[in-house]
Amino acid sequence: MAESAIALFQSAVGKTQGDLDHQLQISEGEDTDYRVKRGLAHILRNSFSTFEIISPLEPGELRDRIFTLAATKTPSPAAAKQHLSTLAAELTQELDQAVEPIHIQQGLYADLQENRILISFDAPTPEALLHRYNLSQVQGIFYKASHVTLNLHRNDPGEYKLMFKYLKLFRLMTYIEGEADQGFTITIDGPASLFKASTRYGVDIAKLIPAILHVTRWQLTAKLQWKNPYTQVSQEKSFSLTDNCDLVSHYPPGKPYDSMLEQAFAEKWAKTQTDWQLEREVDLIPIPGSVMIPDFRLVHPDGRVNLLEIVGYWRPEYLRKKFYQARQADNKNLILAISERLNLEKAGVDTRNTPAKIVWFKDKLQPKAVLEALETD
Q1: Prediction pTM value
Q2: Cα separation of 121 and 37, whole Å?
Q3: What's the pLDDT tens digit per position in 8-21?
Q4: Among candidates 272, 347, 354, which has minimal Cα distance to 313?
Q5: Cα separation, 220 vs 242, whole angstroms
Q6: Distant-in-sequence contacts of 101-108, Cβ < 8 A, 24+ apart
Q7: Both ends of the chain: CA-CA distance in Å?
């Protein structure tokens, strides 16, 4: 079934999404497993396919041009043909490329979803597609979660760091207890626990599942607010998952950087003449109820070590949490690089109570400013 779906998408390259959907409908036929086929097609369409609008101009502008011409004469097949030829000649001159009447006809409503063109398809293996399908079934469960508890047993420290970075990336509301030698218990509020259920937040929790699969030893339990489809009465149910689940992650083992800001800083540092070495992998800083993971570690040959955290995110909740962590960590070797564009006063943040050194920057963090902070007693 997976092989057939992949082959169908490969044969549809260069055709419209409408043509593709029609072929998918034919392949379903009257089979009772049509839901599985639709699920496979959904994954291929959204994760492996690239659709584009093909039109000489933006379709809306193209319609304005052709309808303006059409308003000048009495409607007729001959007049319509003439309008297409006239506009084609005008666009050929304006765009300095050949535009034929057929291009205008195809582009008029190219912005409709069924008229988008499948320009490329990055075909997965059938096994990879089935792994994505199985994982998607599990991810969908967490849209109804009110509470998630994740126990990370004693693992390689690098696995912890990767897990916490994904928690940070997806902006999940978490409470973390434990330590690297014994393991961590992570409590995550689910979308059903919010004042108003958020589909977007449910998606963010679902995105976390492939990241968990990179941890060697773990156990997850979720409380779900499940509505009975017949009685419409909500019931509390539970769902459990362990490291023996045989699910396969499609996430890479780790991302080099969490943001373009961090990447740009690291690239500039590599060109700087200094004895300080910039390291990406850093130690976890334990604080009550959580851990702090600085973005970089700076190591000098004489043994000095400093940690660098770049604060460029604007949400008030994030800013308050970040400075609370810095105070709780009480680490004199921590440097906070803060964007001047952040309204810290409005967020209720007072930098004077922060034990860390502070470096200010505008659009991009410059190595020179950090080096000056490193040499300050």
Answers
A1: 0.66
A2: 18
A3: 999 999 999 999 99
A4: 347
A5: 6
A6: 103/55, 103/56, 104/56, 104/62, 104/66, 106/54, 106/55, 107/54, 107/55, 107/56, 107/57, 107/59, 107/62, 108/55, 108/59, 108/62, 108/63, 108/66
A7: 66
